[in-house]
C-alpha cells in the first residue's frame, strides 16, 4: 500500500501551504500497522532541532551624530567638498579666499592662532597628535605635550609646505578646523563664489567614525592593548607601557588631557593629583576613607595607589610608590576601544598616537509599545540588511518619551528603541539612512523533535499522524505504521511533533 492509498484507512494529507495555521491536539494515539508498499517510498529523517519562529518589523539604519564644519574665517569660498565626500584628518574641506581650510581630529575647537609665542594649552597637544599621525614628524622630535616648541614649528612648516603654502610654522585660525572623527558629507552649505562669515557652516556631515586619539611616550614598549569594542570608563586599562598600566579617566580633557608628570609623596599639589584620587575612590581603593580627595599626594594616596596597582598584578611599596607620567588619559564618556594604531610589542621611537577610541557611528531605530519585553534593554534582535545578510543586534537604549503613534484614543503609547549592531555590511556605507528588517523571535522550542510539514497527515476522525518506516519486507518494499502525533510549532518547513517518535527514524513524505 502506498501513501496515496492511506485515505482508505481514514487519512487525508495535510496541505503544507496551510499547515502554519494548525496547532491542534491529536485524538489518534493508537498506532496502526500499514501493509507493505508495492513501491519504494520517499522518506525523510525525524530530526531534533532548535525551532524558532520570527515576527518581522521594519526599522531604520541611520547615523547617530551629525556634525557641522564651520568656516573659521570670513571671506569668499573658492572651493568646497561635495556631498558624499569623506572628511578626515588632513582633508581640505574648503578654500576661503584661495587659502585651504584643513580638517584635523580633535574635540577642542580652534579658538586662537598658534605659534612658539603661544601659551601652553590642550589645543597645542591636539595639534601635535595630528601632525605626528599625519607623518609630519619623521625624525620623532615632537614631544606630545601642551607646549608649542621648535619641533612643533618644524612639523607645522612641513605640513604647510605640503599644501602648497609658504610654510612659516605658525597656525592661524583660518587654517584648521577640528572635527570629532571621520565625516560623510551630507549637505554642502557653502557655495563656491559665495561669502561666508567666521562661524558660517561650510558642510554638514554624518559622523562615520568617532575618533579620540590616545598617545604613548617615546621609548615606551606598548603591550596588552584593550580589545576593540571594550567599553571605556574610569579605570579601564587602555594598554600597558613599559610594564605599567595606562588607564582612562572620564573627565574634561580640555582642562587636564593626560598625566604629564610623575606623582609620588612630596610632589607639588595639582589638579592632576585630585583627578587621580577621584579615580582611585571611584574604583573602590579608598574604602576606609583615609585618603582625602584633594590636590595633595600624601601617604594615604600612596597606599591607595599601591593597592590599585596590586589589583592589576603590579607589586608596589606604598612608601615609595610613584605613578609615572602618561599613566592616565582623560577621555569623554561613552567611548569604546577602537583601532590599535601600533601592534603590541612596539617600542615607540618618539611620542606617538597608539590608539583611537571610538563610539557607535550608526544604529538601528524603531518604535515599540511601552513595556514590550521583546525590546527590553539588552535584548538580542537579529537585523536583516537589504543585501540579505543578517547580523545580531542588541537593544542599547529604550526611549523615555512616549507618544501615541496610531492617533487612536486609548492606544498603548510607543517609545523609540535603539539597537546597536557591531558588524554592519559595507553595502550600506553610502546611505545616510536605509530601511532594515528586524527579525524578532516570537516563539522557540529548543531540542524539538521535528518532521517536514509534508510528512504530517490529518486523520478523518480528527487528529494527526505520520507514517514511520519500520523496516523492509522480503521483497525489499518499505513497511510502515501510523504514529499519532500532536503538532506544535511550525517553522522553516518543519513542524514540532509530540508522540512516540525518536530522532533519526524515517517517515514518509510525498514523492
Tell me briefly what this model is.
The chain is mainly beta and 511 residues long. It contains four helices and 31 strands. The chain is 10% helix and 39% strand.
Structure description:
The model is unreliable at 1-32 (pLDDT under 50). A six-stranded antiparallel β-barrel has the order 4-22-25-24-23-26. 10% of the residues lie in helices and 39% in strands. It has five domains: 3-56 and 444-508, no CATH class; 66-209, PGBD-like superfamily/PGBD (Muramoyl-pentapeptide Carboxypeptidase, domain 1); 211-256 and 334-359, Beta Barrel (OB fold (Dihydrolipoamide Acetyltransferase, E2P)); 263-323, no CATH class; 360-431, no CATH class. The two termini are 14 Å apart. It has helices at 122-133, 150-162, 271-282, 299-311; strands spanning 11-13, 32-34, 43-45, 47-63, 66-70, 75-80, 86-87, 92-96, 99-105, 176-179, 181-188, 195-196, 201-210, 212-216, 221-223, 237-241, 244-250, 328-331, 336-340, 346-347, 352-358, 362-369, 380-384, 390-398, 414-421, 433-452, 457-459, 464-472, 478-491, 494-499, 506-508. The chain has 511 residues and is mainly β. It has four helices and 31 strands.
Please give a handful of descriptors for the protein shown.
mainly beta; elongated; 31 strands; Muramoyl-pentapeptide Carboxypeptidase, domain 1; five-stranded mixed β-sheet; 5 domains; OB fold (Dihydrolipoamide Acetyltransferase, E2P); six-stranded antiparallel barrel; 511 residues
